[in-house]
Write a structure and sequence with these properties.
Blueprint: E1 9-13, H1 17-25, E2 32-37, E3 41-43, H2 48-52, E4 62-64, H3 65-68, E5 75-79, E6 82-86, E7 91-94, E8 99-101, E9 104-107, E10 111-113, H4 131-150, H5 154-160, E11 162-166, H6 170-186, E12 200-205, H7 216-228, E13 231-235, E14 239-243, E15 246-249, E16 252-255, E17 258-261, E18 265-267, H8 270-274, E19 284-285, E20 291-292, E21 295-300, E22 305-306, H9 319-337, E23 353-357, E24 361-365, E25 370-373, H10 374-387, H11 391-407, H12 425-433
Parallel strand pairs: 1-2, 1-9, 2-5, 9-21, 11-12, 11-17, 12-13, 19-22
Antiparallel strand pairs: 3-4, 6-7, 7-8, 10-18, 14-15, 15-16, 20-21, 23-24, 24-25
Bound molecules: flavin-adenine dinucleotide.
């Protein structure tokens, strides 16, 4: 700790993994910090699918930002949406028309869904990025079973009991495995007119294999493991249409009431705010020290930044990468305050890739060792519990998982925040945008 107080104002936009880590590593640097986020909570996105599939409650994976920095008097938290950056006057522009001045700016605003030019699919195939998304998906999944219980037409009932996941990355695989288990293990005793074990879970991936960022043998294992859970995996076929009746992929039309989008993300619009060069996913092409070209006082980190790892491959959009960048930026700011401007470039270190398949299996690629099966699942579980914030949450999540592991029962089978049980996707979307109950 330097002890010296500088009249230097660091504004950090985004209290996700990258932003919070920057705050953390600026402790004792003697700077004033303003942390701006449009939500009042930090979200542990890796476990979002467990809220969407009724395994965990929202409060187990999200924490009030204000509370997380309450022991840091130099940090001011603002609940506000950033809509632009005035680089000439060094001001962050907020949605209410006000502005916040900065000496150093850190943009850590994450990513959003990308529908590859088909934004009209979004109401029918929602993605998973926020707590609202997760609750909306949970409602949609549980309502499909409820409506199937009351449906007498066999074709409509079959569509209600068909769950399609578009995209075979980690989130798609996790969603598919858990929905299949929900139908086959958790719910079947609760219904009288339908057998939920007959529900279809279909995973559609445009590429030749699921989990493309993993080695081929782990992808093949994950595919077999999903199939043993009852998931139908369709590879090499992109979805070409999606509406309230289902999806079209390849030559097939699949009637389905519930479609989940897990196929693509784009960066937050930081590049547009800055007029900065961006890659195809909209990520700001930053300098090796994570600053914006021509703006040494502005850093962009995490899912919003495009930067290369030491081996030339792009740094992946995952939580450890955002955290490493946050830590690095804090060290650059500290060094600059001491007059040291010759800091080396950011060097990403990849610690490994993990993905879980249902409640008992997982795949892990640490580079030097590859694991799969039950042992991988336990390591996945312990790693995720370790990274949660707070002892109470760790205990609560661990207990929930052990309970689900042992009994198959899930504690969060709640349909909330929808006006009607039979709400159409379009109406539901309108409600969601209007902040309906
Ligand atoms: C469903 C899902 C599962 C995932 N699973 C894993 C996993 O298993 N392992 C892993 O390592 N990674 C996983 N990831 C990726 C990981 O969550 C991201 O890489 C990581 O969150 C990126 O950190 P970040 O700081 O860049 O952005 P985020 O953590 O997304 O934080 C961005 C913050 O910026 C705020 N914000 C955005 N725009 C504005 C604005 N205009 N004004 C104010 N505030 C704004 C947001 O509210 C948010 O709090 C997953 C992501 C998702 C969506």
């Amino acid at each position: 700790m330097s002890g010296k107080v500088h009249d230097h104002h660091v504004v950090i936009v985004g209290a996700g993994f990258g932003g919070l880590e920057t705050v953390r590593w600026l402790k004792g640097a003697g700077v004033r910090i303003t942390l701006i986020d449009r939500r009042n909570h930090h979200l542990f996105q890796p476990l979002l699918y467990q809220v969407a599939t009724a395994s965990l409650a929202t409060s187990e994976i999200a924490w009030p930002i204000r509370h997380l920095v309450s022991n840091r008097p130099e940090v001011t938290t603002l609940l506000a949406q950033v809509v632009g950056i005035d680089t000439a006057w060094r001001r962050v522009l907020l949605d209410d028309g006000s502005a916040v001045s900065y000496d150093t700016l850190v943009l850590a605003t994450g990513a959003r869904h990308a529908y590859f030019g088909h934004d009209e699919w979004e109401p029918f195939a929602p993605g998973l990025k926020s707590l609202e998304d997760a609750i909306r998906l949970r409602r949609r999944i549980l309502l499909a079973f409820e409506r199937a219980e009351r449906e007498s037409d066999p074709l409509r009932r079959a569509a209600l009991l068909t769950f399609v996941i578009i995209g075979g990355g980690p989130t798609g695989v996790e969603m598919a495995g858990t929905i299949a288990e929900l139908a086959r293990v958790t719910l079947w005793r609760d219904y009288r007119n339908i057998d939920t074990r007959m529900a279809r879970t279909v995973l559609i991936e445009a590429g030749p294999r699921i989990l493309p960022s993993f080695p081929p043998d782990l992808s093949a294992y994950a595919e077999r493991a999903l199939q043993s859970l009852g998931v139908e995996v369709h590879l090499g076929q992109a979805v070409s249409a999606c509406d309230g009746n289902g999806v079209v992929y390849g030559e097939n039309h699949l009637p389905a009431a519930t479609v989940v989008w897990a196929a693509g993300v784009a960066a937050s619009p930081a590049a547009e705010w800055l007029g900065a060069p961006a890659d195809r996913a909209g990520r700001v092409e930053v300098e090796p020290n994570l600053t914006v070209p021509g703006h040494p006082d502005i850093f962009v980190i995490g899912d919003t930044a495009a930067v290369a790892a030491p081996d030339g491959s792009p740094v992946p959009g995952i939580a450890p990468a955002a955290k490493q960048q946050g830590r690095y930026v804090a060290s650059v700011i500290r060094a600059r305050l001491k007059g040291d401007t010759a800091i080396g470039p950011f060097r990403y270190k990849h610690d490994g890739s993990l993905a879980t398949i249902g409640k008992r299996l997982a795949v892990i690629d640490f580079g030097w060792i590859k694991l799969r099966g039950a042992l991988a699942w336990w390591i996945w579980g312990i790693a995720h519990i370790f990274f949660l914030i707070g002892v109470r949450n760790r205990l609560s999540v661990a207990l929930n998982w052990l309970w689900i592991h042992a009994t198959g029962h899930r504690s969060a089978l709640l349909i909330t925040q929808g006006r009607q049980a039979t709400m159409s996707p379009v109406k539901e979307r309108q409600d969601h945008r209007e902040g309906g109950p």
